[in-house]
Write a structure and sequence with these properties.
The structure is a single chain. Among the domains are: 152 residues, 3-Layer(aba) Sandwich (Rossmann fold), CATH 3.40.50.12780; 79 residues, 2-Layer Sandwich (GMP Synthetase, Chain A, domain 3). Helices cover 28% and strands 30% of the residues. The longest helix has 15 residues. 41% of the residues are buried.
Length: 446
């Protein structure tokens, strides 16, 4: 057995997983891993590519580790859209598909499309397990990234044990979600999994199971404020909120800190290509952070953050490595500001930069100003083509009390007049009827 499965066995009767209001110990998890290992033994050969079609639950976690023990190349798929499932299976050239119905598993052979990709052959030859993750696909077809899963898992070995309870918010097919899972198991903590990612449900679980750590996104944290979920439940057990996946507007962080004034806020950072890096925030109400990880090197080139890590991908199955330099640096696409004390601030993505007549505008800067408007509860800024200036700044806004379109435009313009340069002030204002976000709880920029 691997060190991590042995570690699960050693945790014994300690609570491991809470899902759908049921509690499972580490002993239960270990028993289920062994049960699935017996079921797949002789049916699924070592080294074959297996699509695991499920989001997080007790049984999918156990199956994940059974496949890891069997040295399979695992493709976690959380979408329920049949065409997306089939596309991921096709791109990964899977040998098998496994669907879960409670504890029961259904194993289905997949149609093979020629020989396995050379990177998969390399893992198979070396007798290693693998992991295939897909990008969000917001700017084209989703990229299929291949990780050496043995290498990834081994970076968590030796973590100090803690008596804490984490809520696992990020999804099974997301590098952040897997990072939280592996980190929690290495520390032997209790993991609470929501059956739906809804602010009231998440806050209910925090109260019921005395959750200490909530890892999530700025967008979801704002949804908690919008629905005032923090006033409906006792969240006093929370010690830390970690946030990442998108830039945090400074004024939103200040608002969050005033509501959760006893909670430490920590900004996380990572990419699907390089893994999640250890970070330290300058303070709970600061968006400056330091990447402080022995596995990770960073440098800043023309304002863009480049990373080289020991947990980065072997490559893509369906894309070129153009964002990697010959000596292994990954160009993240994240734009940063540097402070003199070594801290950096993620200010946005280079693909989201708005060019207004040659002047550059960062959506996060404008959003941070808009979030200071007294009646505004959500906003989203992006660029739109303009025949005169090339692009213009567009703001989608959500007020507590809806206004007439002309009044909303006037209110935004007047509020921003002494806070932003003229070219940064939204030229177009659209009122939303509700917050708009992706299924990963990130801003759904046009």
């Amino acid at each position: 057995m691997s060190w991590i499965v042995d570690h699960i066995a050693e945790m014994g009767e300690k609570n491991a997983v809470v899902y759908d209001y049921k509690e499972y110990t580490y002993a239960h998890l270990h028993e289920q891993i062994l049960a699935y290992s017996k079921q797949i033994d002789g049916k699924i050969a070592k080294g074959t590519v297996v699509a695991l079609v499920s989001d997080y639950n007790f049984y999918s976690i156990a199956l994940f580790f059974a496949l890891y023990e069997n040295k399979n190349i695992i493709v976690p798929i959380t979408t329920k859209i049949a065409s997306e499932i089939e596309d991921r299976i096709r791109v990964s050239n899977c040998d098998w598909r496994i669907d879960l119905n409670g504890e029961a598993i259904a194993i289905t052979p997949c149609k093979k499309l020629g020989e396995a990709h050379p990177l998969l052959q390399q893992l198979q030859k070396n007798g290693k397990s693998g992991l295939i993750l897909f990008s969000s696909g917001t700017t084209g077809a989703p990229k299929a990234m291949i990780h050496d899963l043995d290498n990834l898992v081994d970076t968590y070995q030796g973590k100090r044990g803690k008596n804490m309870t984490f809520l696992i918010f990020l999804m099974f097919d997301h590098i952040g979600g897997l990072n939280t899972l592996l980190n929690c198991i290495a520390m032997g903590v209790t993991m609470v999994f929501p059956i739906k990612r809804d602010p009231d449900h998440v806050c209910e679980l925090i109260e019921k199971y005395q959750v200490n750590v909530l890892p999530t996104s700025p967008t979801f944290l704002n949804l908690i404020l919008i629905g005032e979920s923090q006033n409906k439940y006792d969240l006093s057990s929370l010690r830390m909120i970690t946030y990442g996946t998108e830039p945090m507007p400074e004024s939103l962080l200040v608002k969050l800190k005033s509501v959760f004034n006893r909670v430490k806020f920590l900004q996380t950072f990572g990419t699907s290509e390089t893994g999640i890096s250890q970070t330290a925030s300058k303070s709970s109400d600061s968006t400056y952070l330091r990447i402080d990880d022995p596995k990770t090197e960073i440098k800043i080139v023309d304002g863009e953050l480049w990373i080289r890590s020991k947990t980065q991908i072997m490559g893509y199955l369906n894309a070129s490595m153009e964002r990697f330099t010959e000596d292994g640096w990954f160009k993240t696409g994240d734009l940063v500001e540097e402070a003199e004390d070594g801290y950096i601030k993620i200010v946005g993505r280079n693909k989201e930069l708005i060019n207004v007549g040659g002047e550059k505008v960062l959506p996060s800067e404008v959003e941070s100003v808009l979030f200071q408007m007294p009646d505004l509860i959500d906003c989203m800024v992006y660029g739109e083509q303009n025949p005169i200036t090339g692009m213009m700044v567009v703001a989608k806004v959500l007020f507590k009390t809806p206004m007439k379109p002309s009044e909303a435009k006037k209110a935004v313009t007047l509020f921003c007049a002494d806070k932003l340069d003229r070219y940064k002030i939204p030229a177009k204002v659209i009122q939303m009827t509700e917050s708009e976000y992706t299924d990963r709880f990130k801003k759904k920029r046009n």
